[in-house]
Design goal:
- By secondary structure, the protein is an all-alpha fold.
- It has helices at residues 8-32, 40-63, 75-100, 108-124, 126-139, 146-173, 175-183, 193-210, 226-236, 238-282.
- Helix 6 runs parallel beside helix 10.
- The radius of gyration is 23 Å and the shape is globular.
- It starts with 7 loop residues before the first helix and ends with a helix.
- The relative contact order is 0.16.
- It is found in: Membrane.
- The chain crosses the membrane at residues 6-23, 35-61, 81-101, 113-138, 158-176, 196-213, 233-256.
- Keywords: Membrane, Transmembrane, Transmembrane helix.
C-alpha cells in the first residue's frame, strides 16, 4: 500500500508556505518589541507538539534501522523531515522571543517554569535520538548491537504509546491559554491576525497532505487490502495529519474570535455616536 503520492515539488511549496506563515507574527513581535497579547503557555504547547512531531519522524528515518521495509527513505521523506524541523525551529524562536520580550502576563518565575518544562521534554525526545544517531553513524560506525535495538524499542513504545498522545492533548490545550489572553485584552498588541489566518489555511493543507506523503510498505507487498495497512497508517501517519489539523483548527478559531471581538468593539463604539447624533437632532 503506497500512500506516497504527493510530489516533491508540492512538499517544497508547502514547506515554504509553512515558513512564510510565521513571518507576520515574527514581524509583529519585532515591531512592537513586546510579547503582550501572546500567551507563553500557548507558544510552549505548540512548541512541545512540534518537538514531538520532529522527534518521531527523525526516529523513523534516522534511528530506526532495523525495520527498513516499513518506511523507505526517499527524497520526499527528507523533505517531510525538513517540514517538521522548520516548524519546530520557528516555534522555538517564538518561545525564545517570549522569554526575552516583556509582557505583563508573564512573570520571571513563569518563564523559568516554562523553560524547565521544555528542557525536560528535550531530554526525553530530541536529545536521545540525536545522541543515538551520533553514536550509531559516527562512533560505532554502524554496528547495530542488540542493546541498541532494545533501547530503540523502548523509546518508540513510550513515545507512540504515551508521550505523543499526551502531546496531542497538549496541542489541543494550547487554545485555552491563548483564548484567555484574548479575553483579557482590548487590543491585539503582539498577536498577528494575518499570521493566524495564514496558518489556518496553510496547515490545513499540510495536514491533508500528510495522509498522502508517506510509504507504509515497499513494493514487495502490493496486494494487501487497505484494512490490513490501517495499523501501520495509524502509527506512521496519523500523528502528523491529526496534529497539524488540530493546529489549523485552533488558529481558525482564534482568528474568528478576534474578528468577532473587533466587530463587538466597533458596534459599541458606534452606538454612543448614534445616540449623540440623535440627541443633537432632537435639540
Amino acid at each position: 500500500m503506497n500512500l506516497n503520492i504527493v510530489p516533491n515539488w508540492l512538499r517544497i511549496i508547502l514547506l515554504i508556505l509553512s515558513v512564510a506563515s510565521f513571518l507576520p507574527q515574527l514581524q509583529r513581535i519585532w515591531c512592537t518589541k513586546q510579547f503582550t497579547g501572546l500567551s507563553l503557555s500557548y507558544v510552549l504547547c505548540n512548541l512541545m507538539s512540534a518537538t514531538e512531531q520532529f522527534t518521531l519522524l527523525f526516529f523513523l528515518l534516522v534511528n530506526q534501522t532495523e525495520y527498513t521495509d516499513v518506511i523507505q527513505k526517499t527524497t520526499g521523506d527528507w523533505i517531510n523531515l525538513a517540514q517538521l524541523a522548520a516548524v519546530w525551529m520557528l516555534w522555538l524562536l517564538l518561545f525564545f522571543l517570549g522569554l526575552y520580550y516583556p509582557s505583563n502576563q508573564h512573570s520571571r518565575e513563569r518563564k523559568v517554569f516554562a523553560s524547565i518544562m521544555y528542557i525536560v521534554l528535550l531530554l526525553v525526545s530530541i536529545v536521545p535520538v540525536i545522541a543515538d544517531a551520533i553514536d550509531y553513524y559516527l562512533v560505532s560506525a554502524g554496528e547495530d548491537a542488540a542493546y541498541r535495538n532494545f533501547g530503540l524499542d523502548i523509546f518508540g513504545g513510550y513515545h507512540y504509546g504515551y508521550i505523543h498522545p499526551v502531546m496531542t492533548l497538549v496541542g489541543i490545550y494550547a487554545w485555552f491559554p491563548q483564548n484567555h489572553e484574548l479575553r483579557s485584552r482590548t487590543q491585539l498588541h503582539s498577536l498577528s491576525q494575518t499570521g493566524l489566518a495564514a496558518q489556518a489555511v496553510i496547515f490545513a493543507l499540510v495536514a491533508i497532505s500528510w495522509t498522502m506523503r508517506t510509504n507504509l510498505y515497499d513494493s514487495d507487498l502490493p496486494d494487501l487490502p487497505f484494512w490490513a495497512t490501517i495499523p501501520e497508517w495509524f502509527i506512521y501517519v496519523w500523528w502528523a495529519a491529526v496534529d497539524n489539523m488540530i493546529f489549523a483548527c485552533i488558529q481558525t478559531g482564534l482568528y474568528f474570535k478576534i474578528r468577532r471581538h473587533e466587530q463587538f468593539s466597533t458596534d459599541h463604539e458606534t452606538q454612543p455616536l448614534l445616540a449623540e447624533s440623535a440627541s443633537e437632532s432632537e435639540e
